[in-house]
Sequence to fold (291 residues):
Amino acid sequence: MLWVLVLASALAVELHGTVRADQRAVANARAEARARWAARGGLAVLAERLRERLANPSPAGAFAVTDPLLIPAVEYRLEGVAVRATAHDARARVQLNLAPEADLHTLFSAAGVEPGRAGVLAARVAQWRAAHAPPPLAPDSSGRRLRPPPGAFAQVGDLRRVPGVTQAEYERLAPLLSVAGDGLVNVNTAPAAVLRTLPGIDAEGARALVARRRAGPMLSQYEVLGALPTASRLAVQDRFTELQTRAAYLPRAAEVEVSAAPDGSPLRARIRAVAVLSGRERAALVGVVER
Fold:
């Protein structure tokens, strides 16, 4: 009888543990589902606010702004889930798949990496990018070439796959990099380290541009010249044609990030996407990735 009681107790304990595990699994599944749908809702709200902004442009343009966040962050709570969504100008960062090695070297140095080490990192990034670049696609039956696949870096997080890049270096550089956009630099939204990658812009010139845009956005290369101190202006004038092809004054794509966090749960739902800003009331979402 004693052994029967011991066995029954053990079975009861095991059953209780199984029930609790099942309850936790059900609760986590519910929290995950709530977070996922809340994140999708946040993405829809953000896209609609971008479209509203496009529908009511200023004389200079809907997004003639001096903040890399193109609209205020969307933040709200919905049925116990905290949602936050942002749209960041892709041209405020250096395009990791398109930037020449010399620009990466300049950026890494401007971000605080020791110059010699910055050169080594830039070379390694360029080598890794070349080795992992997707092959060009053959023409289809009509003779047209299909749109090429994304570059070697599908996301900025892939920078950690480059041999020799430390976690500390990644955390320092990642906020200045992007895999979206056309490779141009928006002089109105880019931080000083990114501005340094523009032709002729030195540290003093980058600081001057950041100070100048406090008065409002610049809309031409002539306003850029007027904002620069004499030495920087002369350097830019020598490379004026290059500046014309590398600088931008308005965004054309926004990097969208959405997070949703249910109360009392460690689970998070995240969405990344790119909003292409083209034409009146259009903010097409592409490259949507849910995690």
Summary: The longest strand covers residues 253-262. The longest helix spans residues 2-55. The chain has a mean pLDDT of 87.
